[in-house]
């Protein structure tokens, strides 16, 4: 009987003998493959900015005003919002990797409709459907890779995903730039259609090849399968250690909570819910997608009036994104999450101030060659964003939740990101039209607020296993008390061990 849920047993082959060592190559291979979902995410983040600014696209669709143009770009984020929220159910019910397959199937439908559109309604509908798939992928990929990664390398693993996401943005920018030279007014259909191929590859691979998350398998009481997946990833000895920790954590949580949506907004889970949603919201409202979606318009207001020159400078953004996405892979786990986020905010705030000054200068000196200096500041923004928030917000939001709440928590935090992204994408064009360079003063102030949030509200999580997060945030003891267990930290551990043994 056909079922979406992953039910195949995961067993060691009879040909394998002896104790298996850790296989980081396999971890990296799985990370790279499922990060095709991040590639799709990045590609769609970068592909529309140049298209909606192109005169031939405008002539074909004739958007009535900047609000309509903003809607074409930003209603995609509403689809992403619903896709992200669905992770809370799909990832727990069907499995992390099967959720990615479902997301890619829906993504493909939206991509076909979008690339075949002939009016504003159809292209917007296509972007909403495609957005649903992107929203699932955006939240589902870091959820999966965080659950297969070693604790000390979790930042690096999510950094690899972020690098592939930035590669998608790079490809989008330069495909747009290249296809823009075609004489046909329908050139934009080609970059919109190309993304169908990787979506199909990911859908098939996640259905038949990618193993389930070991933590999801434990939640399904498939302990032997979970242990086998862990052994393939981290070796037999480490698998035994991790299985004991995961089984204790899941057994305890099953004994003291039902992990409903309502509990996400009640103590003791409320704190981590608000931290995860907060860090993902700040990732957006500090201005990243306002720059990414509307880079050509930003350069135009900065005095770069030649469309080809503006598009070329926009392609440079993709290069900066990709090059500096490599930095966290090698250094992110060396410093704390909070340290990186604060470093990033200082640089991002300076970049926004630079954009403000150069746009102000261009208003008064429209033909000054000095206006070209504005190109440096979006680049500077993404240097600091990529070494900090690009990896840090996703890492933090996916790692802080207890096992039973992780899928729902990831759904809420990712949904908050997309809601913030929608507000930024929809509001940026009319605000920029109304107050010009004042928009970037607003983003500078938000960077300051985000700095205060990181410094005083967030808890450092560097080097902690996923199973240690519950104790770090005081959730374990609070859940025990709420369930009527009058236990201290020591007897809580004893209770978990008894639960696992079935005593």
Could you describe the 3D structure shown?
The chain has helices at residues 24-34, 36-53, 55-61, 66-93, 96-115, 120-148, 154-179, 189-194, 196-208, 214-219, 223-234, 236-256, 269-285, 288-293, 295-301, 307-325, 327-331, 337-364, 376-387, 389-399, 406-435, 438-457, 469-472, 475-482, 489-501. The protein is mainly alpha-helical and 503 residues long. Helix 1 (24-34) packs antiparallel against helix 6. It is globular and about 70 Å long.
Please summarize what this structure is.
The protein is an all-alpha fold.
> What's the helix-strand series?
HHHHHHHHHHHHHHHHHHHHHHHHH
Total beta strands: 0
Let me know the largest β-sheet: none
Percentage of residues assigned to helices? over 70%
What is the averaged pLDDT score?
83
Beta-strand percentage?
under 5%
* Radius of gyration computed on alpha carbons: 23 Å
* DSSP helical segment count: 25
Stretches where pLDDT is under 50 for at least 5 consecutive residues are: 489-493, 499-503
Structural class: mainly alpha
Shape: globular
* Distance N to C terminus: 36 Å
Comma- or semicolon-separated keywords:
globular; disordered C terminus; 503 residues
Secondary structure topology:
Elements: H1 24-34, H2 36-53, H3 55-61, H4 66-93, H5 96-115, H6 120-148, H7 154-179, H8 189-194, H9 196-208, H10 214-219, H11 223-234, H12 236-256, H13 269-285, H14 288-293, H15 295-301, H16 307-325, H17 327-331, H18 337-364, H19 376-387, H20 389-399, H21 406-435, H22 438-457, H23 469-472, H24 475-482, H25 489-501
């Amino acid at each position: 009987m056909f079922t979406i849920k992953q039910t195949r047993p995961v067993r060691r082959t009879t040909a394998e003998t002896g104790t298996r060592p850790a296989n980081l190559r396999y971890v990296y291979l799985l990370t790279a493959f499922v990060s095709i979902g991040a590639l799709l995410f990045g590609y769609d983040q970068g592909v529309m900015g140049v298209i909606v600014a192109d005169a031939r696209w405008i002539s074909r669709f004739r958007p009535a005003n900047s609000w309509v143009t903003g809607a074409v770009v930003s209603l995609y984020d509403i689809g992403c919002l619903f896709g992200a929220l669905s992770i809370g159910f799909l990832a727990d019910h069907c499995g992390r990797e099967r959720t990615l397959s479902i997301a890619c199937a829906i993504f493909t439908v939206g991509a076909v409709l979008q690339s075949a559109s002939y009016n504003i309604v159809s292209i917007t509908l296509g972007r909403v459907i495609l957005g649903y798939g992107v929203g699932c992928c955006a939240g589902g990929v870091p959820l999966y890779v965080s659950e297969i990664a070693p604790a000390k390398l979790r930042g690096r693993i999510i950094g690899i995903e972020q690098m592939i996401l930035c590669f998608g943005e790079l490809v989008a920018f330069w495909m747009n730039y290249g296809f823009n030279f075609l004489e046909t007014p329908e050139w934009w259909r080609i970059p919109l259609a190309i993304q169908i191929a990787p979506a199909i590859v990911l859908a098939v691979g996640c259905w038949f090849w990618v193993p389930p998350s070991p933590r999801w398998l434990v939640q399904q009481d498939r302990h032997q399968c979970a242990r086998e997946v862990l052994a393939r990833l981290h070796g037999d000895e480490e698998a035994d250690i991790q299985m004991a920790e995961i089984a204790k954590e899941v057994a305890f949580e099953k004994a003291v909570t039902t992990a409903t949506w309502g509990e996400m907004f009640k103590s003791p889970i409320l704190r981590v819910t608000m931290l995860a949603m907060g860090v993902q919201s700040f990732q957006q409202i500090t201005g990243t997608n306002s720059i990414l979606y509307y880079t050509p318009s930003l350069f135009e207001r900065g005095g770069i009036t030649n469309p080809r020159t503006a598009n070329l400078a926009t392609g440079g953004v993709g290069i900066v994104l990709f090059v500096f996405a490599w930095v966290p892979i090698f250094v992110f786990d060396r410093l704390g999450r909070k340290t990186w986020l604060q470093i990033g905010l200082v640089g991002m705030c300076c970049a926004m101030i630079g954009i403000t000054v150069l746009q102000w200068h261009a208003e008064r000196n429209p033909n000054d060659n000095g206006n070209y200096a504005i190109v440096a500041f979006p680049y500077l923004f993404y240097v600091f964003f990529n070494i900090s928030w690009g990896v840090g917000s996703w890492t933090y939001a996916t790692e802080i939740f207890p096992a039973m709440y992780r899928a729902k928590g990831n759904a809420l935090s990712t949904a908050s990101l997309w809601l913030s992204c929608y507000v930024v994408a929809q509001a940026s064009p009319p605000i920029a039209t109304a107050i010009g360079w004042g928009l970037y003063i607003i983003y500078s102030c938000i960077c300051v607020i985000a700095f205060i949030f990181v410094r005083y509200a967030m808890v450092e999580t560097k080097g902690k296993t996923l199973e240690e997060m519950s104790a770090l945030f005081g959730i374990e003891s609070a859940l025990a008390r709420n369930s009527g267990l009058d236990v201290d930290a020591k007897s809580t551990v004893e209770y978990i061990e008894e639960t696992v043994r079935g005593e």
